[in-house]
Records
---
Amino acid sequence: MPVDYNELKKDRDAEWREELRKKVSAKDRSSQERIKMPERPPQVRNKDFFEVPEGFSEEQAVVEASRCLDCPTPTCISGCPVNINIPGFIKEIERREFLQAAKVLKRTNALPAVCGRVCPQESQCESKCIYNRMKKRPVAIGALERFSADYERKTGNISIPELAKNNNIKVAIVGSGPAGLTVAGEMAKLGYDVTVFEALHEFGGVLVYGIPEFRLPKEIVRTEINSLERMGVKMVKNFIVGRTSTFEELKNQGYRAFFIASGAGLPTFMKIPGENLINIYSSNEYLTRVNLMKAFRFPEYDTPIVKGKNVAVIGGGNTAMDSVRTAKRLGAERAMIVYRRSESEMPARIEEIHHAKEEGIEFLNLNNPLEYIGDANGRVKQMKVQKMGLGEPDESGRRRPQPIPGSEYLIDVDTVVVGIGTSPNPLIPAALPQLEVTKWKTVVVNEKTMQTSIPEMFAGGDIVRGGATVILAMGDGKIAAENMHLFIQENK
Ligand code: FAD
Ligand code: SF4
């Protein structure tokens, strides 16, 4: 999305912003060290599911906000997939207008409390902050975003955006992850009669079934859903579009356009011997049992989970990191990451790798599982792994892992979680044979409009990209909503 610098300039020219810039010199601002967000001690937090970072206090937020130089051309915004007016909300914090800061954020980002916690800011907005060029640590944009959204929620002053008059045109959203929720909010603002259909018994997609409570408390997702409901969005759960009702049936009920946001929830396995042994989970199943079904509170809740003592988690992404930290919290004595490349190639957020290490997670990098070995009852008891070296970069730009012959060895394990990635949910393409999909089964869209090969159907998020990020799913949602609106207006 291109940044509209003229629009930003209007905000920046406000008298109060000018005064703020004059009050403290750029030199003084940039000599202030970045404020570190307080965190709960590793040896305490690795035994419970409460959140790890504690958030900025008001004073810390104001000091950190004062580091921002309110640049005339804020390069940070070019790193944000939804173009948040970053200096705009940060300067509101500096002048202690915290609720106003949240309002600025919400102009372009419907889920700031979520993004402030899970977005990879270090490779997005913060990587583009001017401080990097000065060889200084960037402004803590993510922590400030989280602060503003939390302030609004904790003070019970949650604003909802202005809504256009209801036009009584029905649109359906399939899936309630970040992509679906974004489209729901945008279409409600434009006056549409919006219904979100969700297959599971809770709304939020990966935000509730994947990302654990210690990174993203579910109360935050619920608050965002409540805001959508206050905007008139109808939320329908336990409803599988394509099964509970077909698209044809929904069309007959008056739905004029659809947004497909069914995600990439299908687990991938390595297809190696022994992978079917008992106590080998996909990370999706493992995390869903713990997060959504509250298995860590079994038997108070119905769903159990095996609380392994020696747990190996395969993979190096966020999913693997969430699984291994969950295993530690469930009581594992040895909770290990087994990853075939080295740490510098790991796709997980740097912060999460750092937190995992602090919490006592072992990293067996440059190790690749070859086979699982079971006991007489069919339960996994060992895994055979092979050591790896790194060769030339592959098509992903990362150095290709290469097996070291003769380096195989055995590790004792009683639980394994396979977190090597997921693929697109196959249900919607199966229900719509005329929908064009790629060879990886992602839905084909026009990238400028997010329209699929079926004109009244738009799609975005992981069902289009494969596994990506929350903010990219939301960015897709914004583009799709704009173009769904155009499509409906042109085809009245
Ligand atoms: P999803 O969030 O997957 O939501 C899709 C929803 O559609 C699901 O609720 C599903 O039940 C529903 N659905 C599917 N089919 C149907 C149907 N037929 N009818 C009705 N409903 C249906 N990203 C980050 O930016 N930062 C992170 O730290 C991060 N950590 C992650 C940790 C884990 C464990 C995982 C799995 C992913 C993580 N991601 C992270 C990735 C991010 O969560 C996803 O990219 C994002 O959630 C995709 O959003 P979405 O709306 O496309 O799909
Ligand atoms: Fe502030 Fe950094 Fe953005 Fe400049 S680039 S406006 S200093 S956050």
Note: The domain at 267-422 is CATH 3.50.50.60 (FAD/NAD(P)-binding domain).
---
Amino acid sequence: MALQMFGIPVSRGVAVGRAVLMSSARLDVAHYFVDPGQEEQEVNRLRSARAAVRDELQTLQTELPSDAPPELAAFIDVHKMLLDDPHIGRETANWIRRRRYNAEWALTAQLDVIARSFDEMDDSYLRERKADVEQVVERLLRALRGTQAIDGGAHGDEDLVLVAHDIAPADMMQFKQGVFRGFVTDIGGKTSHTAIVARSLDIPAVVGAREASRLIRQDDWVIIDGDNGLLIVDPSPAIVDDYRVRKQESELARQRLQRLRNTPARTLDGQSIELLANIELPDDCEAALRGGASGIGLFRTEFLFMNRGRDLPGEDEQFEAYRRVVQTMGGRPVTIRTIDIGADKPLDDGADYRDGEFTHLNPALGLRAIRYSLSDPAMFRVQLRALLRAAGFGRLRILVPMLAHARELHQTFAQLELARSELRAAGIEPGAVEVGAMIEVPGAVLMLPLFLRHFDFISIGTNDLVQYTLAIDRADESVAELYDPLHPAVLQLLAQAIAQSHAAHSWKDRPVHVSVCGEMAGDPQLTRLLLGLGLRSFSMHPAQLLAVKKEVLRADCSRLAPLAQAVLGQFEPEDQARALAALAA
Ligand code: PEP
Ligand code: MG
């Protein structure tokens, strides 16, 4: 009987494939398929790495001082023995030959198999030998780094789905190359950054599946139902067939949506709606354009800074990335957010270059986003200068995340002014930019007039607004049930922010553009509600653009406005559900 598990659906669609189980610590190695026919060459890479490690261990042993404790020499013997053990040599080569995994991936896959069998041992001495195997594999991975990787890229014959306890957003990024057809993690919430990246990959994903990585075994057949958050392990052929049909149907539905690509996003009552894209890397612009985006509403630049150790991108490198986005978008507005490092987005998979920073007890409430940037003004100005330079090549807007204090706002503008004068001193004329504030902290909504006075536009980050209004960690699956974008308090804040922004034109010399760039904006089930609350600009993953446009085309804002107001007044769940049903009718 097939095993079924439920988690939180975060990225839609269905994937059917063989499970690749990987421990979080191993996800940062390269994963690619070697081209057919190149398997033996890759096995040779592995062989050379083993020879190098054998030499390394031999040298270590011969250079041991005469007074070294005898256990040390014995230790090295154990490592030499493990290196020659067929479980490491032959079995790893098998992953390369059978699956065409690159050597690093094959090694970590095999390490996970070995680690599991060690975990199941009763003998605690033997259980502890797992650490020795890990050390040997670490040495091999280091040795492989010194050898020329064989370029791959072609897909294996079978579809693969990744199952891990957790995946850091930075690690998820490397899967943009498309090795896996789906993802499952034990932990995480719907708007955790790992989930957000999975969604941007447009691949079925389920997070918060608790026991999945313990119960699913390497190579098991798994169905990931990203629409319902369901996992089916070892499904019967009939179930697989059923899901294959569903997969085809959803692909057909996507193709049908493509027809809307060039249709203007206008409601039945003639309101023009701006549909913008959220991106993580410059390459994502292609998907944004394919989805018919009228611009970029959120470029999460922190992804340029991840997996870089201490080698953070300098001004020129950043400038090139920003200029590329601005130019690719060909005159459409491009909103680039200054880095939002911290919380569940550490710089380097937990090991930040400013040591110890993420050991804070409450990282989501700690040194994050603008607080992080202002704590290192020199680094902040590198980014601001790069942005101001890129602004000379198109319509660039700078967006500042997580502001809450007037002081932060004034310091940000002071740094921006300083960045401008530094550029001028270097003989470079800074480009013109609009500057916007992200509204993601309830305190910022409650003092919105201050933000409206100083900024050209605001962008409401509902992912964090929900997190901070309801005191729910957005990445914690144990409280995921309570993470509710429709909570009456969240809706009140959202409505207030939209209405006050619209009203600002009466006391400010120009209107203040307001947009929502959190996940709510990309949820077609919420489009009517947001339109009813007066929202006219939505920013979302490129994959969501056309589904939201479909809702826009069917909507009549004049009819939705009173219905949305009626939702706002409801605090009891049943009353709210009734008001929402009227809005959907
Ligand atoms: C948000 O908080 O809604 C947002 C868009 O920013 P991020 O998801 O990157 O925190
Ligand atoms: Mg945010």
Note: The chain has three domains: 3-23+150-239, 39-145, 260-584.
